[in-house]
Amino acid sequence: MAIHSKSAGKLRVRLAGLILGALGCSAGAAQAGYAAIVIDPASGKVLSAVNPDEPNYPASLVKLMTLYLTFHNLQTGKLKLDQQLPVSAWAASKAPTKLGLRRGQTIAVRDCILGMVTKSANDAATVIAEGLGGSESHFAILMNAQAARLGMTGTHFDNASGLPDPDNATTARDMAKLAMALYRDFPQYTHFFAAKQFVFRGRIVRGHNHLMDRYPGMDGLKTGFTDASGFNLTSTAVRDGHRLFGVVLGGQTATSRDNLMARLLDDGFDDRQTPTEVVAAAGVSGGSMAHRVLNALSPIATAEADTAPATQRHYRRGKQHAGAVVARAGCKPRKGAACPHRKTGKQQAAAPKKQAGAVKLVRRAPAKKAAVVASSHKQK
Fold it and tell me: For residue 286, is pLDDT > 50?
């Protein structure tokens, strides 16, 4: 855990002490432990579950709600994929991973979506938040209201990206609900989750979800990581026309998280439960509450998306389960991670004013069957 100066270290300890007092009074404080769940959306049956309702830090899985509200506004015509959104100083200042957007630039909604799905770009998520909510803090209110409508009773969002914040919390069950809602409510946009890379301003931006490369039938959704959360993953896969959704929170490493997800899905497709000890072996130790809070306040270790010169300039939709989705869009990679700060009054004052066409809450729609692609392959 990198602390750049003694004074910074003392400040974080003092902040931790204050936050610990608040967390000690809250039964819903994120535990940063481990959890997993697999659900059959057709029947609603929970096929495997370990600590499914224990609070954990969501990290970049938060972006799934940002994407839910984005897709809703596309569906209602309030947004368009090629619409250009402005980049504020607040969005440009976000810690990595990011697309490297600069204040005063604009970026297409399509590129924001692909930036969030592949590289988990925090600046792109903030651009969407400000474009739809007027400010990131107001957008978080809309996120929480929508989470309540989806029955995500153990979740609270404090930002649009999932950057470290002690007030961000979720459960494996809630993330599964959100993932299933995305595929149920917006089947026309779920192809974005199959994107493995895209072209942004002349550079190839590669994604973090490497399990899609080796698990037949997997076509989404999203990875997440901070020091406090451990390695998180929400996935969906299809086998013989049968779709399952899985969530892993608090993996010890990206590899152990991915291997656990593959095991969970294999067991789910074979209609058997994954042993609790298998899930526990892949999870991180929660540690003391003080350690978890300090992690939440510390700089985050991030997985940077590789970049390479691009020859393709046009967006093409890839087939589900195969190949990358390439779009126009680039950035120069930035190594390392800065310590993210909580929003201050001064910073919030720089955010754009609330727009007249802010997001309306989405009422839960009747279940829809999304088109699926059957896979005859079985994971070894």
Answer: no
Contact 125, 201 (CB under 8 A): no
3-state SS of the chain is: CCCCCHHHHHHHHHHHHHHHHHHHCCCCCCCCCCEEEEEECCCCEEEEEECCCCCECCHHHHHHHHHHHHHHHHHCCCCCCCCEEECCHHHHCCCCCCCCCCCCCEEEHHHHHHHHHHCCCHHHHHHHHHHHHCCHHHHHHHHHHHHHHCCCCCCECCCCCCCCCCCCEECHHHHHHHHHHHHHHCCCCHHHHHCCEEEECCEEEECCCHHHHCCCCEEEEEEEEECCCEEEEEEEEEECCEEEEEEEEEECCHHHHHHHHHHHHHHHHCCCCCCHHHHHHHECCCCCHHHHHHHHHCCCCCCCCCCCECCCCCCECCCCCCCCCECCCCCCCCCCCCCCCCCCHHHHHCCCCCCCCCCCCCCCCCCCCCCCCCCCCCCC
Q: How far apart are CA 302 and CA 162, in angstroms?
A: 13
Q: What is the pLDDT of residues 44-81, one digit of tens each?
A: 999 999 999 999 999 999 999 999 999 999 999 999 99
Average pLDDT on 358-369 reads: 40
Whole-structure pTM value = 0.72
Q: Domain 33-349 sits in which CATH superfamily? A: DD-peptidase/beta-lactamase superfamily (3.40.710.10)
Catalytic residue set: 60, 63, 120
Which residues fall within 8 angstroms of residue 50, CB to CB, at 6 or more apart?
34, 35, 36, 37, 274, 276, 279, 280
Q: How many CB atoms lie within 10 A of CB 112?
A: 29
Question: From the centroid of its chain, how far is CA 83?
Answer: 23
Place of tokens 């809450």: 361
Residue 350 neighbours by CB distance under 10 Å: 12
- Cα-trace Rg, the chain: 19
Contact call for residues 157 and 168 (beta carbons, < 8 A): yes
Give residue 31's pLDDT: 58
Could you tell me which residues come within 8 angstroms of residue 317 by beta carbon, excluding any fewer than 6 positions away? 191, 325
Amino acid (1-letter code) at residue 343: K
